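Narrative summary of target 7.
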Amino acid sequence: MSERSKVTIVGAGATGATCAEVLAQRDYAEIVLIDIKEGLPQGKALDINQMAPILGFEATVSGTNDYADTAGSDVVVITAGLPRQPGMSRDDLVQTNEKIVKSVTEQTIAGSPDAVIIVLSNPLDAMCHVAKNVSGFPKERVFGQAGILDTARYRTFIAWATGASVKDVHALVLGGHGDQMVPLVSATTVGGVPLRKLVSEEQIQSMVERTAVGGGEIVKLLGTSAWYAPGAACAQMVDSVLLDEKRVLPCTAYLEGEYGIDGLYMGVPVKLGAKGIEQILEVDLDDPERAALAKSADAVRDVVSVLST
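Modeled conformation, tokenized:
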């Protein structure tokens, strides 16, 4: 039997633990949860392992506070960092989380120099820059989770508005992971039927706006960031890399001229496989979408400019 792939999830908070739980049920990887808080990753790992007899998967989750236990990881998922509090913008987090992501990246790559890094820490686009700069890894192996989550929220609202199954809603959200994200209405279909043929422009605008503030809506309700959908979105990316699925998914990738944007991490559709990002796909945008994407890029540059690395 071949050896299982190894995945390290940095940060055993709600999102990291959800990602570990979803991956554990997929039953193909050894998962290491690491956190600076003693007892937290060990307890969550033990709890997930004890789900195994009930749900029928092989328990391969461990918790640790020691980076030596993460050595040899094929994928490292970075969820560590302070979550947003009510009234706090993603930008407020930038300097604090930069220090955390820098430290985490240095410690994980020491034992896993060939890993693919998936970043979830906020502000997401800026933290991808930190992980890339600190690791020195090629851009194909450092990218972020944002678009899958944003697209999932958009698809949920569309399914509710149209009364259709979420499985038949095909959509794409590009741009920065913030209030300037760009849901592509022109490319949105329900069972192959363009969204504009099914609902009014007013309803579409309402869904687009709700998607853009989707994270903030949950923060207001819960008092902290979401974790179920973000954790599952990370797990989907890990699947696509480790199972070489070559899924086309919206991810935060380093652009070098694509979409007219250079030297910046932005959410775009990419093909994810064993090597990480194997291709960046350029879709046709209408004029308002192109303008919105340029505006989103400006907003990301503003946050990135605050970084010290």
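The first strand starts at residue 5 and ends at 10.
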